User: What shape does this take?
Amino acid sequence: MKLESLANIVIIFVSYLCVNHVNAKEDFCTSTECIHASALMLERINIDANPCENFYDFACGSFIDDTLVPDELYTVSVTGQYKDKVDQQLYSFIQQPNGELERLMYELHEACMERNDLHTEDDGVKELKEMIEKLGGWPLIMNETEWNENDDTKWSLSEKIQEIRVMFGHRTDKIIDITSFILLLQSDTDNSVSYSSSHRRPYKDYISQTAYTLSPVDQNIHVNKSEIDDMLDFEYKLNKLNYRLRRLSSKFDLKAQSKDFVENLFALQWFEYFHPSQLRDVTAEIKEIDSDNESINVFDEMRDLLSSTSIRTQANFLIWRLLDYAGSQIAGPIKIFKFQFERKVNGRMDMEQLWKHCIDVVQHELPYASGAIITKNLPNDFKSSINEIYIRVKEEFAQLIAKTALLDDTEREKLKSKLQTLIPLISHPTAGFNQSEIVEFYNEIKINSKHYITNLIQLRIIDADNKFKQTYATASVNDVENWKKYLPPTSLAAFYSDSDNTLRISTSVLMQIINSDNSMKFLNYGTTGFIIAHEISHIVNQFINQANTWPEKYRNEFMARKQCLIEQYNVYQDPETLKMLDGKRLVSENIADLTGIRLAYGAYDRWNREFNGTRRKLIGVDFTQNQLFWIHTAQKFCSVTREEEIKRKIDNDFKATDRYRVIGMVQNSENFATDFKCAMNHVKKCVIW
Assistant: This one.
């Protein structure tokens, strides 16, 4: 615990003793959670700032001033601090394994530690060379006579994927073979770097250095930089198409038969590599919805791109994705090359601590094993507390749909139906994760440090197959008790999927919840409540995307409100980098933020009116209950981030930076202005619904 935190707790305790003598009628919450919440709030807030002028600096000012970003990180955030606690808990659990899952995680962690020891560098390079040799080589480090795409043994992407799966000892139906392999190739490298002017050169250097490292020592190989350019141009074009695909995803019907899907899979498989969570919104059976046929054109352009891209370029890209992942998981020059590249992208000064890196590997490659251990040790009422908030937020959304003047009766009924049939896959099943089923899930894997890379890819194949099967299975209300449908609890992920009408939020995202004192649970509506409300707000995406088909009266009004939000965020300028935000790119997430905070506050207000107990206060924190809601909400976004990472986020993310997510939400809220008595709080407010 930091000295400042300890000092705050002491101050709070002394304050409590004092107020007891001064005013015995005041009722203060003295539970451990309340005292801790008070200390954290005081540690983060800048009481000297004016909340009506800049609420982010008010809520997070001291956190920003007192936080230094360690060399091995590019950001420190409140959300990240809760994730750190999960990591530490998991590490302590697996150090004393007393079950099959703990032993499996312990073995993977130890294998990771061993293979990242500097003494194993030569073994790592040798293993990677053997891997690409078995795959027929990497064209980038082979001349045209060694690798000729026009010879009798023409290279086939689908056959090569099948070959790789067999090489790693995993054979399943071809429909899963092709699709799920691309899932396992998810890269930790931000795909935007392939076309960012400031990142392209260091990215090319990283690829080139890797190529020379893996070149035959007895040959004077010259890496053709133009081939790398071709590979990155291919990636750039795919990303542009994928952006359109994500925007159009709600227009696709995902109920195609497997046979039809296989016929069109060649055009889809790359998308599954880039954004697997989004592919659930896509199908090979495309139904024409809008008059401009844009949904059809995306797939036509995808097929054109693949048919016009040389097999050599596609092969280079496929092998590179394997190397980018595998090479960064073991000690050796490729791991160093990747760090040097990422340093230029996000500003990180040093590599992550080894134990922490290996805990991340355990969580990523054994997601449900890790999740079973973490959720088993949650408070008994953790799930019920979250369900209560979810129900209240959902009820609030139903009222918003019923009251808004922006929808006609037809669209209103469609939205009501969507909301009523929504399947909540939040945190974990009520019965928890079935450990015996999870043991069976991983029964094919025998961890061995000598075959560490093979083990990792095997685990990715298993996870990818599960994602594929669950994604294309028909959604059902019974899914709430199917642990395979949930997000891995240790991930920091949350999303709404329109195609199967599911709301998925991982456990780690919800760790700020307060359980011990019922009268203080209002704080949960600013954290857990907002997260649920933001994601549930994305239910309207399908309707927003089709706004051009609305009756003119509603269409014009919505477009005007949307434009208000775009223009507002266009004038926001990051104080550290002086970069301007892109209101148009951010508008969908900003709508979800504004809708989400409105729903969360409404749910909190109804809870407050229904709760008949005594209103209790936090010791040492002189704010009303309504004001505490806003402060607690804003402090969820407290963060300190390196300039390089801020620039990357502003250039590429679909969400605004933490600072302007908070500022945008409060500037557009009448409730906030009332609670803090902000007479001049952003006179022109953007209201969507």
About this structure: Strands lie at 28-29, 75-77, 423-426, 494-497, 502-505, 617-618, 639-641.
